[in-house]
Amino acid sequence: MLLSLIAAMDENRLLADARGIPWKLPRDVAHFREYTDSKWLLLGRTTYEEMRGWFRPGHCPLVLSSRCGWDPEIGRVVSSVPQAIATAEAAGQGELVCIGGGQVFAAALPYANKMVLTRVHASITPEGRPVYFPPWNASEWKDETIWQQPAEAGHALPFALHELTRR
Ligand SMILES: NC(=O)c1ccc[n+]([C@@H]2O[C@H](COP(=O)([O-])OP(=O)(O)OC[C@H]3O[C@@H](n4cnc5c(N)ncnc54)[C@H](OP(=O)(O)O)[C@@H]3O)[C@@H](O)[C@H]2O)c1
């Protein structure tokens, strides 16, 4: 069973602030859609609320929450990362993709064997409450750069796509 994490962050691992995700990078959005297409997803209740209307047929969101008696409109609620992994595995899924946010990335990182990371080459000053991707031990991961996107029309910030696999 593969648990992968997909995230976009700046040089300081900033994921979001009071503005939401503080960049607009169409190529990254396209890559996110492509990678997550028709997959089972693990996400926090906050990110789920923000992404209402985004899910497509084939997506099965497993929403991490400690709330009792709450159910998402689509997908299922789970109370822990191991429960999410077991649920996806029991349904015959080969991969569960964790799409955030910060709290859920932190809870899922110890169980992850792959990370698909967009590294935005900028240090953004957060406005309001910042949300960060958790730190990871670089020596435990093989880090491969898949492609790089320079700053140009439509992409104000340069960024690179990395795939990390646990050694
Ligand atoms: N840049 C990126 O790649 C990226 C990706 C995704 C999201 N984001 C951004 O991240 C922000 C949201 O992140 P966030 O950290 O505030 O929230 P989050 O991780 O999306 O969700 C937090 C909620 O998930 C539940 N939860 C988290 N850990 C849990 C655990 N161990 N057990 C049970 N439930 C748990 C709790 O729900 P209950 O309160 O219901 O118990 C908690 O309030 C948004 O601004 C979003 O735009 C950025």
Task: Describe this structure as you would to a colleague.
The protein is α/β, with parallel strands linked by helices and 167 residues long. It has one domain: 3-Layer(aba) Sandwich (Dihydrofolate Reductase, subunit A), CATH 3.40.430.10. Helices cover 20% and strands 34% of the residues. The protein has helices spanning 26-36, 45-50, 81-90, 102-108, and strands at 2-9, 14-16, 40-44, 60-64, 76-78, 95-100, 114-120, 131-132, 141-149, 159-166. The strands form two sheets. It has an eight-stranded mixed sheet with strand order 5-4-3-6-1-7-10-9, sandwiched between helices. Strands 2-8 form a two-stranded antiparallel ribbon. The longest helix has 11 residues, at 26-36. The radius of gyration is 16 Å and the shape is globular. The chain starts with a strand and ends with a strand. Residues 7-8, 15-16, 20-21, 44-47, 50, 64-67, 79-80, 99-104, 107, 131 line the site of NADP nicotinamide-adenine-dinucleotide phosphate.
Write the layout of secondary structure elements.
Layout: E1 2-9, E2 14-16, H1 26-36, E3 40-44, H2 45-50, E4 60-64, E5 76-78, H3 81-90, E6 95-100, H4 102-108, E7 114-120, E8 131-132, E9 141-149, E10 159-166
Parallel strand pairs: 1-6, 1-7, 3-4, 3-6, 4-5
Antiparallel strand pairs: 2-8, 7-10, 9-10
The protein binds NADP nicotinamide-adenine-dinucleotide phosphate (NAP).
How would you describe this structure in keywords?
167 residues, alpha/beta, Dihydrofolate Reductase, subunit A, eight-stranded mixed β-sheet, two-stranded antiparallel sheet, 4 helices, 10 strands, 34% strand, globular, binds NADP nicotinamide-adenine-dinucleotide phosphate
